[in-house]
Design a protein that fits this description.
CATH superfamily of the largest domain: Umud Fragment, subunit A
Distance between the termini: 18 Å
Pfam family, one: HTH_3
Number of helices: 6
Protein name: Helix-turn-helix protein
Keywords: DNA-binding
Shape: globular
CATH topology of the largest domain: Umud Fragment, subunit A
Largest sheet: 10 strands, mixed
Number of strands: 10
Structural class: alpha+beta
CATH class of the largest domain: Mainly Beta
GO molecular function: DNA binding
Length: about 230
C-alpha cells in the first residue's frame, strides 16, 4: 500500500465508512477504490480532488501528508501514548506542548480538539509510530461512546499516583459488559479490560481519601490520526 492509499483508507475507516459507500459518493467503482487503497492504482487529478473534498482534507495532505493553510486547523499535542505499559503522562507541561496542523474536521469545528503522539508500535493496528492521534472529549460531545469506537482511557496507577493514557477499541456486549481491547498485534501487550457495566468513570479498587478521580475514565473519542512525514 502506498502512502496515498494508506491515507485514503485511514480516512475511510476513521469515519466508519465502507468502500461501497465511499465509491458511490465519489462516482467511482468499488474495485477502483480498492486498487487505490492497496497502492495498485493511482487516482487522477479529478478523482484526487473529489476524494479531498469528500473527506474535507487538502490534496497536498493526500499526496504527501503535508498540511496546507487550506482545510487545516491547528491543535496542541498534549501528551504521548504507549499502550499497554501505562508509562506515559497524559498531559504535557505547557512548556512541552507543541502545535501541529491537521486536516480540518468540519463535524468537530466548534469542539476543542487535541492530539497525542504515538511513541512506539503499541497501537500499530491503527497508527504507526510517530503518528499523532486527534481526539475530542466525550464531555464536550455530550454523548456516550458507540460500539466499535476507538477511545482514550485515563488510568490511575496506585503505586505511583500518576495518571496515564492508552488507546482502546471499545466493544459493547449484549450482557451489558464493556470490553476495551488493545490496539497492538503484539501479544506481550496488555489483555483486554472487561468492565461489568457501562459508564465513563469506574472505581476498580479502594480509593485514596485524597483523590476523587476514578481509577479508570473513558476520556475521549479518536476522530483521526495522521503520520508525521520525515
Amino acid at each position: 500500500m502506498n502512502d496515498i492509499g494508506f491515507r485514503i483508507r485511514q480516512l475511510r475507516k476513521e469515519r466508519n465508512l465502507t468502500q461501497v459507500e465511499v465509491a458511490v459518493a465519489l462516482g467511482i467503482s468499488r474495485p477502483f477504490l480498492t486498487a487505490i487503497e492497496n497502492g495498485n492504482n493511482s487516482p487522477g487529478r479529478a478523482t484526487l480532488s473529489a476524494i479531498a473534498e469528500y473527506f474535507q482534507v487538502s490534496v497536498d495532505w493526500l499526496l504527501a501528508g503535508l498540511p496546507t493553510t487550506t482545510n487545516t486547523s491547528k491543535i496542541h499535542i498534549i501528551g504521548e501514548v504507549q499502550e499497554g505499559f501505562w508509562k506515559t503522562d497524559y498531559v504535557y507541561e505547557d512548556s512541552k506542548q507543541t502545535v501541529f496542523s491537521v486536516p480540518f474536521f468540519k463535524k468537530y469545528e466548534n469542539i476543542n480538539r487535541y492530539a497525542l503522539l504515538v511513541m512506539d508500535e503499541s497501537v500499530n493496528k491503527i497508527y504507526p509510530i510517530n503518528s499523532i492521534i486527534v481526539l475530542v472529549d466525550f464531555a464536550d460531545l455530550s454523548s456516550a461512546p458507540s460500539n466499535g469506537n476507538y477511545v482514550s482511557i485515563i488510568r490511575r496507577d496506585h503505586l505511583t499516583g500518576k495518571f496515564e493514557v492508552s488507546i482502546k477499541k471499545l466493544k459493547l456486549k449484549k450482557d451489558g459488559k464493556i470490553v476495551l481491547y488493545s490496539c497492538s498485534d503484539d501479544p506481550n501487550f496488555e489483555k483486554p479490560i472487561i468492565l461489568s457495566h457501562f459508564s465513563l468513570e469506574y472505581t476498580l479498587t479502594k480509593q485514596d481519601k485524597n483523590t476523587s478521580f476514578p481509577d479508570l475514565k473513558i476520556q475521549g473519542l479518536v476522530i483521526g490520526g495522521f503520520r508525521i512525514e520525515a
